[in-house]
Amino acid sequence: MRKRLAYKKAELEAVKSLVAINKERPKSIGYLKRIKERLEFKIATEATSLGAEKELVRKIDEVERELEKSLKVYKMHKKVELVTNDIEEASKQIDEVQKKIADSDKVLDDLYGELRRITGYRNGEHRGSRTSSERKEGGQKQPAEISFADIAVIKDKTGNSGYSDDADISSN
Q: Nearest 5 degrees, angle CA 126-CA 132-CA 133?
């Protein structure tokens, strides 16, 4: 989302610079379309000389060029408006996601606190992790003896896996 927002901001700056280049106020699009339709209607319905008709065609071409410029400027202004709306929407979405993240962090912190309280975990130590016999002996934990057979599955030469009564397994 942040990449999209950055892209939209860059796009907005680019379009605004194009709009700033074309500072002249374009004529109304509707007005230009009506003039063009009148001139075309005049050519189609009136009987005029060849020179007068060529002059009307030149005027139509001129009106079409102005209409194209006006449409281009209108589209740029519309693009600025749309990009601005996209930026606002993306900003709102980012704010919503950040709010959800903050809420989730708060819930997780509460749950971790509850878990620490239940387990008695504080600063890297477990309260209650010693057994009562260890407390009586002065807190010395005896390491549990684990044999290799408890950990690994032994394969005999026949390819059978698992413990066998014939296997000679000894623990150190």
A: 120
